[in-house]
């Protein structure tokens, strides 16, 4: 049985909302993630890929995010009358192969102020849930092999390390990137989901961003 393509939709959690990314969101996304420390680990092609200003970021976003092969999401806080939404970053569900039931969760970046908070845990819980609820059997996650922080975060989600693709792509500075590949399978998802839910329940800290 094939997997089913999910429709673009808003995913709402305890502290974050994932809404389909639109071009009108890009100025706020630029303010959240266009920082040297975000690109230092390999995001967007590495440090040399950091757009110098908003117009350059708009061009970058048009080429980089999987607008036609999946669902790019804007990650923001849950909005209330007292606390309007704050854009935190982005993630995507893409490379959707319904025949072989494979998908890829990636293109993820957050405002450095919410690193090591519940934001990534809850965002991944929501988007992985969307993938597995639509019949996908293997969801890939990956990072620049040199990015120890991102690799540790992926492993902590419960993803299994599969190996390193050598000279997988060219970085913005012309050097070769090796890519560390991880995955979660559908039969692993119930245990992974339970562990992520436990991590969220144990983390009662307010987000340091309002």
TrEMBL record:
- Note whether Transferase occurs among the keywords: yes
Molecular functions (GO terms)? acyltransferase activity, transferring groups other than amino-acyl groups
The name on file for this protein is: N-acetyltransferase
This protein's UniProt keywords: Transferase
Statement: the UniProt record of this protein carries the keyword Transferase: yes
InterPro entries recorded: Acyl_CoA_acyltransferase, GNAT_dom
Biological source species? Labedella phragmitis
> Which ranges carry the N-acetyltransferase domain?
16-159
């Amino acid at each position: 049985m094939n997997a089913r393509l999910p429709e673009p939709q808003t995913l709402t959690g305890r502290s974050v909302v994932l809404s389909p990314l639109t071009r009108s969101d890009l100025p706020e996304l630029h303010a959240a993630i266009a920082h040297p420390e975000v690109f230092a680990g390999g995001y967007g092609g590495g440090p040399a890929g950091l757009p110098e200003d908003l117009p350059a970021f708009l061009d970058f976003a048009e080429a980089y995010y999987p607008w036609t092969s999946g669902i790019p999401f804007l990650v923001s806080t849950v909005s209330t009358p007292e606390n309007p939404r704050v854009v935190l970053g982005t993630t995507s569900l893409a490379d959707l192969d319904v025949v072989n039931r494979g998908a890829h969760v990636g293109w993820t970046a957050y405002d450095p102020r919410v690193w090591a908070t519940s934001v990534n845990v809850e965002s991944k819980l929501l988007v992985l849930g969307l993938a597995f609820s639509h019949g996908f059997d293997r969801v890939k996650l990956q990072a620049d092999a040199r990015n120890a922080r991102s690799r540790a975060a992926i492993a902590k989600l419960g993803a299994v390390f599969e190996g390193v693709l050598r000279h997988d792509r060219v970085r913005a500075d012309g050097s070769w990137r090796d890519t560390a590949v991880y995955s979660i399978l559908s039969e692993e998802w119930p245990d992974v989901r339970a562990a992520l839910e436990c991590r969220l329940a144990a983390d009662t800290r307010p987000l340091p961003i309002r």
